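Per reviewer request, we include the raw input and output of the structure prediction for the construct analysed in the revised manuscript.
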Amino acid sequence: MKFVLKKTLLYLLLSLLTFVFIFPIILVLINSFKTRFVIQNSPFSLPDSTTFAGIENYVRGLEATDFLASLGRSLFITVFSVVLITVCCSMTAWFIGRVKGRLGNGLYLLFVFSMVVPFQMVMFTMSKVANVLGLDNPIGIVFIYLGFGAGLSVFMFCGAIRGLPRGVEEAAWVDGCSVVRMFFSIVLPLLKPTLVTVSILNAMWIWNDYLLPYLVMGSDYRTIPVAVQYLKGGYGSVDMGALMAVLIVAIIPVTVFYLFTQKFIIEGVAAGAVKG
């Protein structure tokens, strides 16, 4: 009886927490179909025959933000940044995990230390260096994301690699397998759970990031988070209807991506933490 009661209370508590986390998204979705003036006066009311705006907010918001161009830039930056982070960081972690000595330990400590440094400490210097080196564009910012995402990614990959059996690699080496082929044919497939987890975490971070693209690329190459701010008019006025609509459209890709890959997160984190 006590077990059933505890299970019921836990279920109710988790249901309540789920509603708390989902409610803001539901509120944004509801307001995206209401006229702009009604949103400010009655943000919690449901749209009716007099307040329902249809898809007007979506059309106005997509046009005002040049959404398709911003979507293309966000996709380009996110996809290539994630690919570069996963490939480079997994290779680095494999080197650190297999090469014993001061070099490997020193590199590992440097990557871990980079996780502690706040972004605010380096953002102005970084933006200046990016401008001087010509990295203030969608291609250049991919390499900047590699630098900022390497700390956590290498840390997770190192934990997973330390749990991999050396015998498979040694057998491949005896059979004449090259280092590059050994990594991509043997090591990388064994890192699949951690690989997917690192990809998910970095994709969600890069897709939703506002400050780094704004500092590096400014208004010349707007990503979706940067484009949203241009719905703000003069004297602080904001087109709330268009803003809500664009936010809903912006979170759809990353939400779908997360739902299809969420089962790998716990498995990947456990592989990188328990065996590290």
